[in-house]
Amino acid sequence: MVWLWRSGNHASAQIRASRVDYRDVAETAAIALTSDQLLQGTFELCAEGHLNRRDVAALMGEVLGCKIEASMLPFEEWAQKAGVPRSKDQMIGLKAMYDWYDAQSLLGKREYFAELAASDTAETRNVMRQMR
Fold first, then answer.
1. Burial (CB count within 10 angstroms: exposed 0-12, middle 13-18, buried 19+), residue 66
2. Cα 39 to chain centroid, rounded
3. What's the CATH code of the domain at 40?
4. Is 40 exposed, middle or buried (0-12, 13-18, 19+ CB in 10 A)?
5. pLDDT by residue (tens digit) across 7-54?
6. pLDDT tens for residues 79-94?
C-alpha cells in the first residue's frame, strides 16, 4: 500500500525548502526573552538541509515503516479544499506567490541558529521519530 501525502500548502513537491522544529523556535524565544544574547539580531531559524516534499514523504515512510509519496492537487482544487479567500485578486496573488516559490524555492541559512539549538531536534528525521 502506498500512502499519498498532501501538505497544507500548494508549493510544488520538488522545490527545496527550509523547515524548522517548533521546539527550536520555543528554545530560541526563551533565550531572547531571558537574556541579552540575541539583542539587535535578526536570525533565520531553520533546520539543516533543504528538503522537498518528496524527501519529507520518504522520511515519513521510513520512520513509519510504509511507503508514502508526495502528491499535488491543481491550484484551483487545492485552494477550494484549503478554504483560501475567494476574491479574484487574492487568488491571483496567492497563485503568483506559489509560482514564485516553485521557481525560486524557500531556502534559509542555519549559520547562527546552529549555535543556538543545543539539541538535534532540527534534523527532520529525528523530529519525525520523536513525534511518532
1. exposed
2. 26
3. 3.40.50.720
4. exposed
5. 556 667 777 777 777 787 888 888 888 989 888 877 777 777 778 888
6. 888 787 778 898 898 8
Type of residue at 97: M
Q: Nearest 5 degrees, angle CA 96-CA 99-CA 104? A: 120
Cell numbers for 128, please give them.
519525525
Separation of alpha carbons 130 and 132, rounded Å: 6
Total domain count for the chain?
1
- Residue 86 is part of which domain span? 2-131
CB-facing half-sphere around the CA of 109: CA atoms within 13 A? 4
Give the cell for residue 1.
500500500
Close Cβ partners of 112 (under 8 Å, ≥ 6 residues apart): 41, 43
* pTM across the whole model: 0.64
DSSP state of 65: T
Confidence of residue 107 (pLDDT cuts 50, 70, 90): confident
Task: Indicate if the pLDDT at residue 5 is higher than 60.
Answer: no
- 31 sits in which H/E element: helix 22-34
Report the percentage of the chain scoring pLDDT > 70. 79
